Amino acid sequence: MFERLAKSGQEFAEQTKEHIAEYADAGLRTLVIAYREIDEQEYVEFNEQFTEAKNLVSADREEMIEEVAGKIERDLILLGATAVEDKLQNGVPECIDKLAQAGIKIWVLTGDKMETAINIGFACSLLRQGMKQIVINPETPENKALEKSDDKSAAAAAFKASVLQQIAEGKRLLSSSTKNSEAVALIVDGKSLTYALEDDVKDNFLELAIGCASVICCRSSPKQKALVTRLVKSKTGSTTLAIGDGANDVGMLQEADIGVGISGVEGMQAVMSSDIAIAQFRFLERLLLVHGHWCYRRISSMICYFFYKNIAFGFTIFFYEIYASFSGQAVYNDWFLSLYNVFFTSLPVIALGVFDQDVSSRLCLKFPPLYQEGIQNVLFSWLRILAWLFNGVLSATIIFFFCIRAMQHQAFRKGGEVVGLEILGATMYTCVVWVVNCQMALSISYFTYIQHLFIWGGIVFWYIFLIAYGAIDPDISTSAYQVFIEACAPSGSYWLLTLLVLIASLLPYFAYSAIQMRFFPLYHQMIQWIRSDGQTDDPEYCHIVRQRSLSHTTVGYTARFEAKSKSSEERARDH
């Protein structure tokens, strides 16, 4: 606003700046008010140009709107400044602390003055006493003098050089602080951000910002908020989430991978432009730490299980083709092949993707570092995917060779006849259905009636289908005609073989899970362990589990308390 004032309208500019600085130091949100009288002809011309700019659909629409607005927002006369108290919502510091413990990097993009933004940073524990701060602010006396002159290009070059110099100094400070394991905060004002986001500077700026524990960009315009979000998203490849409650946050919400709008007193523009709407900032805690973790685990487990069950089924067919010298003879009936992923194994995996909970919502909130499993991609790494693929091949191998060796030469009926292809196929298929459904039962952490119904109901439905399909005319049921009633069910070896194959197929996974849970537990397994032991309310056990976090917390009041305790211990050792 001060840059847009007329020379004759700056009578109280210095006093107003002093007042604004005092208000900002007190944590108030400030607003400068100025005016200019215009004639009707000037307004009509402006309105036509402004309407034309707003109706553009080209990529430079925002630039055109700013250019047209700049033509009328000039030669203003200063009226004064206002200051309002904008208290933090309830639970904001606690929410930010838990998000920081969860390994989420938090950047603040605000239109407030630097002093107000810093006060908010201290209130939220994004900043703390003793924390090194890198402040990028090019408004030195020399630059201010250049800005007042008519040589705008020289002023812009001086500002950019100052920003580059401060970024270089900040990187040197950051490297020295990293060696000493000290947290550093980056504070940037809007004018510096203008030059920091230019093509030849933004990579250096991003490198500096990523290395800092917290980043606060103050006096940011809506466009700058969107550009910072785009820079982080495109250059780091990280998933970005933007949260805001005002119309000036719309560009940032739309640019981020996930936009969360807060419905409140500042209107509904943010909510209408977002992917998710919440009523208060603190609800972000449950959205991410509880539902975010559950969704990540459910989706990753569901995909891995899909690979497993189809490989376990497909490799039995492949092994039989090798056994039959690739004659093209299918070991299973056509309808067995068609209905495997439709009725017998599909519903349990859907239940897994909808209902499974490895840890309750209360423990998800109590142990925020649990969310780091998703950030580190622990549950959907290539190693885990390949392990499930190997498990599928191993299950298929056990099922096929157990069935082949047990039935190839052994008498199956009282008359001494050995089995035919239809009995071998029905027996192998029964083993596959039992194994993959019981594997699902071993993988699930949270059972509901629906999951019991889908898992055991899928197995029961296989027997019902085998009986019903086998009772149909042999022209339709072909190789499945009466195969269960007349051949499989009366034979004790059929049931015994199913049980042995089931135990042998699940034993490797069960042994691996038991060893991992006992000696190499993942973070969620440690929480499951103390929950089963009833130690979730024991402060000592909870502290031990939190210390096993995958990454160190550098901001939030928990980090502030740890830093204070560490400095107290160092002083005690010095004395």
UniProtKB/TrEMBL annotation:
Keywords: ATP-binding, Magnesium, Membrane, Metal-binding, Nucleotide-binding, Translocase, Transmembrane, Transmembrane helix. It catalyses: ATP + H2O + phospholipidSide 1 = ADP + phosphate + phospholipidSide 2. Its cofactor is Mg(2+). One of its GO terms (molecular function) is ATPase-coupled intramembrane lipid transporter activity. The keyword ATP-binding applies. Its EC number is 7.6.2.1. The chain crosses the membrane at residues 305-323, 335-355, 385-404, 453-472, 492-512. Its main location: membrane. ATP binds at R29, T110, G111, D112, R219, K225, N248, D249. GO terms for cellular component: plasma membrane. One of its GO terms (biological process) is phospholipid translocation. It is found in: Membrane. This is Phospholipid-transporting ATPase.
